[in-house]
Every structure is written in structure tokens, then in C-alpha cells.
Amino acid sequence: MIFLYVHKLLLRIGFYCGCMKKMACANKEESMRTRKCFTVTNPPIVFWLWVCILCFFIILVVLNTIFLPPPHTAMYICTTVFVFIPVTFVILWTKMYRIRVNGSRITVRKGLGLVKFSFAITDIRNVQWKVRKNTFAQNEMITVFTAQGKRFKVESLMVNADKMQAFLTDHVEENKIKRM
Q1: In what order do the strands lie in the sheet with 115-120?
Q2: 132 and 139 in contact (C-beta within 8 Å)?
Q3: Nearest of 143, 137, 61 to residue 99 by alpha carbon
């Protein structure tokens, strides 16, 4: 409930305005015909949440270094191994995840940018569409499986997730979509 209040407050003050910009299409001719060119990314609030967590631990280590007597070696090793390295990977993972739709072509980048694949909309083998309702909201998670054995996920909290849902509904055959 608090999350929804904060989310509405951030929407009012325009915190999300930077992420709603339209992405330029690589193939202008095809985008003019289909008018389907957009990018799905993780919401920026997730990135900034992890950055705040990282900053909190940096401040905590600096304060402990200043106010506690030495040695601090164990604290440096533990915070590096258990906080800084994992949080840095999570920050990069959330920032690098991107699904770009350009006409009938979908390009997915995930896994710290190391995993990148592209396929045509006709290569989709099946789609699992899970809908979970609770007292606060409805969360939809879509998992798309391709003919090459690749998969990617789209959740309803992502930026442009509604466009991706409409795109999949319009362009994928109904017998390939399995609603759960």
C-alpha cells in the first residue's frame, strides 16, 4: 500500500517522465508501415532503489571506518563480497535488460548485455501469460518461448509492457498463447 502511494506521488512530480521517451526505430520504412516500434525496459525506480541500497552501505562502511578502531579488514572483505559485488551485478542486470520491437522483429538483450538475440515474430513457439491478482493490483507475467529455444519475460510493471502485451495479442496466434 505504501508502494502504491509512493508510485502515485512519483508520477505526479514527473519522476518517470524521462523513461517515457519514444525510442528511434532502426528501420524507418518498416516502422512507418506497421507503426510498431517500441522498447520494453525495467522501470527506472528499480535501478534507483538498488543505487540507494549501494549508497547506504557505502555510507555505513565509511562511518564504521571513521568511528570504530582498526582493524577493518574483515568488514571490507565482507561488504565487498556480500554487498558491493552482488548489488553491482543486480544494478547492471536491471539496467541492461531490454526488449526492442521493430516492426515484425524482436531483439532481446539480457544477462548483463552478454546475451543478445533477435528473431521474427513468426518464430514464437508459445507464450505463457500468467495473471496474478491480489488486493492491491493485478500482476501479469508473460514468458515468450522462441523456436530456437530462447525465452524472455515481460512483467506488467515494466516500461511499455502494455504495448508489448497488445503487440503479442495482435501478432501471435491465439492457440500459441496459454493463459494461466
Answers
A1: 37-41, 98-102, 105-110, 115-120
A2: yes
A3: 143
pLDDT at residue 21 in the model: 40
Residue 101 has pLDDT above 50, yes or no: yes
d(CA 161, CA 180): 18
**Beta carbons of 54 and 84 less than 8 angstroms apart:** yes
- Under a CB-based contact definition with an 8 Å cutoff, are residues 41 and 98 in contact? yes
Q: Is the peptide bond before 69 cis (omega within 30 degrees of 0)?
A: no
Count, residues in the chain: 180
Using the 8-state DSSP alphabet, how is residue 180 labeled? -
Per-residue pLDDT at 35: 55
Task: Please state the pTM of the whole predicted model.
Answer: 0.72
Nearest one of 65, 17, 22, 23 to 44, comparing CA atoms = 17
Pull the grid cell for residue 74.
574483515
**Could you give phi then psi for residue 30, rounded to 5 degrees?**
-70, -35
Residue 154 CB neighbour total at 10 angstroms = 23
CA gyration radius for the chain? 20
